Structures are given as C-alpha cells and as structure tokens.
Amino acid sequence: MKPLIAELKRKARKLRHDIVCMIGPGRPGHLGGSCSVADAVAALYFHKMKHDPKNPGWEDRDRFLLSKGHGALAQYAALAECGYFSRSHLKTLKNLGSMLQGHPDMARTPGVEANTGSLGQGLSIACGMALGARVDGREYRVYCVLGDGENAEGQVWEAAMAAAYYRLDKLVGILDMNGLQATGPIRDLMDTSPLPEKWRAAGWHVIEIDGHDMQQIVEALNKADTVRDRPVLIAARTVKGKGVAFAEHNPAFHNGVMTQMQYEEACKALADSEDG
Amino acid sequence: MGMQNQRRVYGETLEELGSRDERIVVLEADLRNSTMTALFQRAFPERHFEVGIAEANMAGIAAGLALTGKIPFVNSFATFAAGRAYDQIRQAICIGNLNVNIVGSSAGLSDFGDGATHQAVEDIAIMRAIPNMTVLAPADGNEVREMVGAMAAHDGPVYMRLNRNDVPDALPAENTFRMGTPVVIRDGKDLVVFAHGIMVSRAVQAANILAKEGVSVRVVNVSTLKPLDEAALLDLAQGFQGVLVTEEHSIVGGLTALAAYVLRGQGLPLESVAISDVFGQSAHSHEELLEHYGLTAARMVETARAMLRRGA
What we know:
The complex is a heterodimer.
Chain A: H1 3-23, H2 31-36, H3 38-48, E1 63-66, H4 72-82, H5 122-136, E2 142-147, H6 154-165, E3 171-177, E4 180-181, E5 184-185, H7 186-189, H8 195-201, E6 205-210, H9 214-226, E7 232-237, H10 260-272
Helix pairs in contact in A: 1-3, 1-4, 1-10, 3-4, 3-9, 5-6
Chain B: E1 3-5, H1 6-20, E2 24-28, H2 32-35, H3 38-43, E3 48-50, H4 55-66, E4 71-77, H5 78-84, H6 86-94, E5 101-105, H7 123-128, E6 134-136, H8 141-153, E7 158-161, E8 166-168, E9 183-186, E10 191-195, H9 199-212, E11 217-221, E12 224-226, H10 230-237, E13 242-250, H11 255-262, E14 270-275, H12 286-292, H13 297-309
Parallel strand pairs in B: 2-3, 2-4, 4-5, 5-7, 6-7, 10-11, 10-13, 13-14
Antiparallel strand pairs in B: 1-8, 6-12, 9-11
Helix pairs in contact in B: 1-8, 4-6, 9-13
C-alpha cells in the first residue's frame, strides 16, 4: 500500500475513534452517518484540500460543505486533528455553550463554512460559493458532501440543474450512498434509485466508487480536477456506521445511543484495528 | 402629489448601486421584468444570476455568494421570497447572520389580479419572526431609494417588501431614512397613527379630514418593522389619547402586533386598521381590494371618531 493511502486510512480510523468518543455512552449521537463519510472527509482534509487551519478565512482556500449536516462529528474530528481548535473541545459536543453544535454552525466553529443540517440546502450554498469564485477569478474548489436520503429533497435537484447550467467545474459533490435514512432503508421508504443515472441526466460528470476504498477516493478526487465545463459528482457507495460493527447497516444508529459495553467495544475495535 | 412606482425606483437604484460597488450581485427567479432587476441585468450581466423558477435554490445560492464577500439581492414576489424560501432564509442565511438582501415585490394586496396565491398578507410576520433579520416596508418611492442604499451598507440579512403599483409620495422632501427609527410625518396632539407602506399616505389623508373636525393627529412612518427603536415608539405615543395602527398586512405579526407589544402596560387605547386574519382575492384594481378590506382613510376616520367618543 502506498504510504499516502496508508496514512489516510489511519486518519480515517482516528476520525471514527473520535466520533465514538465524542458521542460517548448513554447519549444519542449521529454515529452512522458520521462514520460513513469518515473516509472521504479524511481524504479531503488531510490530503486533497488547500486550507490553512491557522488562517480559516484564507480567501483562496478550498471550501468544504457538509450538506448532510448530521455528519458533523466527522468534520469536527477532522478540524480538531488539523488544528482548527484544540482536541479538548471534542468532549464538549452539544454541551450548553459549546463551539460544537449538533449541526455545523459557522459562527461557533472555526473551519465550518456555513450553517447546514436542514437537508437539501448545502449544494445551493456550494453553487453560490463557486459562482462567487468565478466572479472574483479565484481558482479554489468547493466540495459538498450530500447524503443519499437527502436526495429526496427537491432543492438538491434545483441546485444540481443550476450547477450544470452554470458549468461549475470547480464544484465537486460527494454523495454518501449508505442506503439508509433515519427510519430505514431508502429503497423501502421512498426509493430514489438509480441516483448516479439521475445525476448524469442532470448534467454532472459522475464517478462511481467504493466510498471506503481510500485509493479510489483519492483517484476520484484527482480525476475531478481534470473535468472541464461540468460539475463532478463522486457517487460513493458506503456503509452506514462503517467501522463500528454493531452500528453497520443499522438505521437504529442514525442517531442512536450506545450502551457502556457497546461504547467500549467500539473504542477498542477502532483503537486496535489496522485499517478501520 | 407625485406618484412613483416602488419597483421601478428599486430597479434603478440597484443598477446605480451596482456601478458603484462591484460586490453587489443580483439573483432572479424568472420575474426580472416585474421585479425590475432586468435593469441591473442589462448593465451587469456577469453579476446577475437567473436561477429559473427555484426560489429555495436562489436563497441558498445567495448565502453562498454572501460567504464569498458578495452583497446579494434576492428577488421574487413577496409571498414566494418570504414564504417559499422561508427555511432557506432561516437556515442558510439568518442563523449565520449572512449579508443577504431579500426583496419581496408585489407585496400586500398589490398584485390585485393574481389573487390570494400571489398576494402577501403575512410576509412581514414571517420575516420578523426570524432572529437576526431586519424588516423594512417603504412608504413611497423616495424611501425605497434610501432603503436600498441602507440595505447594501448594512451587514446582515434584510427583507424589504415593495408595492407593485404606482404609489403617492408620502414623505416630506427632507425625510432621511434611518434604519430602526420611526419618523413623524405630520404632527398632532390628540391621536397618534403608526403606519407603514401605502397606509402612510392614507393616514395623512385621514389626519387632514380629522383636522377639519378639530382632531389633531400625529402620523408616524414606521418603515423599519425590525429592529425597531421601541423607546422611540413609546415616546411618540406619550401624552396622546389613543393609538391607531394601520398596515396593508395581517393583524398577526405585523405592526399591529408590534405596537400592541411595545405599548403594553401604558393604558393607551389602541385600534388597528389592517387586514384581519384572512387571505386576499382577485380584483380589477389594488384600490378595489384596499376598499374591500377596509384599508382606507375613511375607515381610519371612523375608527378614530369611535375611539374619541369612547373617551380614548
């Protein structure tokens, strides 16, 4: 395995460990959807994106938007690991007055670009950022992580069509296709498949990958740099709860509560495992 | 008295601002000929973004543009701007206190022909309810001109509603709009009228009628509905026998509700000439609707007389 890929896999495992620790036992937390995006988040923050934790407002930084805002724990873990704020804040998640809210809050958390969490809105904000970059003649990229359940929101498709019309080729969507939404499998609730085909029809360049294969993630992000005149969607097949055995494929851990035993089991597995 | 169209004044002012400040960008959802942003589009096509008939996406894109340092003006009919994109305004714009200006055109009953679907009787209530939001309702064309400049200069979200039709100039020439400050248009000593929008000029008409009956009326233009200098509003009502509030908006959540809250505990009689909690409907003129819903100088005069008879 290449050193870069091995390092990113190690980082992703650390993010998952932090996610489990942030939630802790006995309290609800968005474990499943945070773990499913952890690999892509690791690849972006620790390799792909141009950013400066000491200068979060740097104008030419690449932007990261978590449209599926409930995956915030993965982003918080990455921001802390990068040094946007002290790791000691991770333990304050959702405490009254904490900088780490249940969903991303730009006013409270250094490194968070916008307020997201009301599903379906992040891609519109990303479009606005990409248009702003174009008006200013800047070269930065905007990465926007969407959930597959979120694709039921009509605004996602309004934004998808606008991005294609405006040829926003600095905009990269990452679709976290874990197949589950809060109350069950998407295909059993209101099946929105086939999503990659729908994004192609909307005018996007679609790259389908295994969202837990770090090599494929990195290659897809690199490929996105070369696409012209079209926005890029990386359709990443993922597992909700990935890396936490009892939470994998389990909608109960969308915002579930770990018992003390489960918590200890998850911590141990992520601490011991070689590749998460 | 001169007449001006608020939409036209808005479109012209926006174009003028655009030439002075490159940060101004304009978003439109297929109504540019009505909202008059077509003027800006012609002058600055690279800073005018047509998003199609997609108001939610428009509000979200505006948030993104604001996050890159632009000063976006988002345009639609008031009911779509404030209502259809409510959640996007709340979540993507207001929680982060982003510098986005939202202009609700054809507000109140002013889109007379299109009926209840296109009229906005509750836009002020919806926008006032969101923390961080500033809410403006200009009395005439001149005030629109001043407000647009103030909106661009203000850092944070602002909602402004506009009338669709030509409206009479209501404010004295020396009027200078200051965000948050209620302004006395015509002074008096018996009754005080708080008004916004087209009802300001109607309140002045009512005051003129009442003056002939020996009733002296102070008319106050409350064109900032939020944040309002509440102490100033209280001061302006001190020593009066009663307060009359009038607005082309529902009694729920607008100036009526605001004045009742600010003046609570003062022991001042308060009446309202506004739209009761109902939707509008189609008609062949704005005036026809204003009369049907009682938004007239005559209704204000009757209400004032009744208050004074009761010993207000």
